[in-house]
Amino acid sequence: MSNPFANLGGNLQGIPYDMIPVTPNDSANNVGTDAATGDDNVAIGLYVETGGDVVITTRDGNDRTIAVPDYFYLIVGLSRVKSTGTTATGIFALVV
Question: Does 3 reside within a domain?
Fold first, then answer.
């Protein structure tokens, strides 16, 4: 998987080039595929339309559960939104 964070420090800059709809999945990275390379994206965050719990795998491979409200931007590097435990809906990955 191509990781756009690999050579960056703690600060990310710029604007996402797309918001990709996410279908939660426990076993596969699901924040989109880079059309240019065919590699899995690592998103810089999520936009969630209907709040609830979101279970993610961070860019470093750690699983986290975050409770979010409706119409919320969750800013964190991630590669996967898991289905088990995720109750939020209308999830979009912000990709750079």
Answer: no
| Residue bearing tokens 């559960």 | 65
Does residue 15 lie within any of the structural domains? Answer: no
Residue 4 lies in a domain: no
pLDDT, one tens digit per residue, over 49-60 is 999 999 999 988
Q: How far apart are CA 15 and CA 52, in angstroms?
A: 25
In a domain, 10, yes or no: no
Q: CA nearest 57: which of 35, 25, 16? A: 25
d(CA 1, CA 4) in angstroms, rounded, equals 10
Q: Provide the domain limits for residue 35.
A: 22-95
The pTM of the full predicted model, rounded to 2 decimals, is: 0.82
Mean pLDDT, rounded, for 61-70: 97
Q: Find residue 33's DSSP bridge partners.
A: 40
Distance CA 36, CA 86 (A): 30
